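Please go through the sequence line and token line underneath and see whether the fold suits the sequence. See right below:
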Amino acid sequence: MNVLVVYAHPEPKSLNGSLKDFTLRHLERAGHTVQVSDLYAMNWKASLDANDSLERLSSERFYPSSESKHAFENGLQSEDIAREQDKLKWADAVIFQFPLWWFSMPALMKGWFERVYAYGLAYGVGEHSDARWGERYGEGRFAGKRAMLVVTTGGWESHYSARGINGPIDDLLFPIQHGMLYYPGFDVLPPFVVYRTGRIDDAKYAEVSEALGRRLDTLWTSAPIAFRAQNGGAYAIPALTLRDDLAAGQVGFAAHIARADEGVDEAAEEATEEVKQRAEANSSTMSIA
């Protein structure tokens, strides 16, 4: 299988650097083909701006989405953007590895998403009607591909627990996993999180790398997070609010993850099957792109 690792840490000798190298060796030894986008080593340009297009749609004002669409549709994107998009099309799975800085990813990686996720590739696709609201949240260009976060943080695991001072780690990562990965169609695996990075000694590193190896071995068999498909019958369109009978009385991020004990009505099952068929067709198209 083809695996892309998008990696952001400025120090090659860091824990992150060592884990990235471990991931590369482990996957290659298992017979997979791996590409690494080391954003700091690449001197990746983080800011999305008018220079991302070789030929502007308008010279009067810069509208990011319309300029992105124009450049993507007409082969006018800057070379670095097009190269990363080719890697995404090539990959069967993508691992995003980064340290948790100020409750999110480093700015360089955020800029990777802003520039590489072009209009027509990661968003702005599919029909908008009374029955559908675009191909997103379970559909999209990356349907059929898998994604996983590898995240390090200096805080204790208890600091990121359900009642921890920093907030639950699943809530902190929800905008990334649901909004940046599931939105364009990835099947998103539970994250691999390393806590208390300042206390990693040789024994702890051996434990962490062994656990990471097990996760990498199940990259294609682990069940993804059960995010609810937008066009699978769970949401009213066009309001895109959750049906009243699902997660009744529950609000917030967790309401958008299906519980194992929930029943699914016949209409929702049919809609979900349609989503799967679209994902399979789109995956076949992407594989030959």
